[in-house]
Design brief:
This protein is of the alpha+beta class and 172 residues long. Helix content is 45%, strand content 24%. A 6-stranded mixed sheet has the order 3-4-2-1-6-5. A hairpin with a 2-residue loop joins strand 1 and strand 2. Helix 1 packs antiparallel against helix 3. It is elongated, with a radius of gyration of 21 Å.
Length: 172
Amino acid sequence: MPLLDKNTLLDQLAERLRQSDRLAHRAELEAREAARSLATESEKKEDGRAVIEYGSLATGQAQRARRVQEELKALTDFQEAGLPRFSRKGPVALGAIIDVSTEDEDGFSERTFFLLPVGAGTELTGPGGDGFLSVITPASPVGRALLGRRAGDTVEITLAGEVREWTVLEVA
């Protein structure tokens, strides 16, 4: 596993969350404006359903923006608390970067995960664009399966109805 600067990776995740926040706010404003533009007296009767739909869309986008803000705060709090250090043979815990391998019909393959409190499913890029890391959380099936495991442990995880067996190679 190449040496990775976790703070740089956390900054990358924070920027992705901020981008998602900006998109949610923009979508909310656009939906509210669309609802208002349909709100002339004659259109209200004809397009009442569209006004309701745009209003609901705006509310959903506002909720999405609030969730992203909560995730950003949780990420900032986690980073400010100080990132834990891991030994290569230590157990997987929050803040760990975990290399795993699996064998399938194409042979062996490796994946790298970053276990964080938020950001599940986000793909982060390694230094200089070298490789990708998938963010997982303790609430995700992969996060739950890996939590507490050590290098050399094997876990079975069911994803999309398919059972996969992964071996923990290293914890950092």
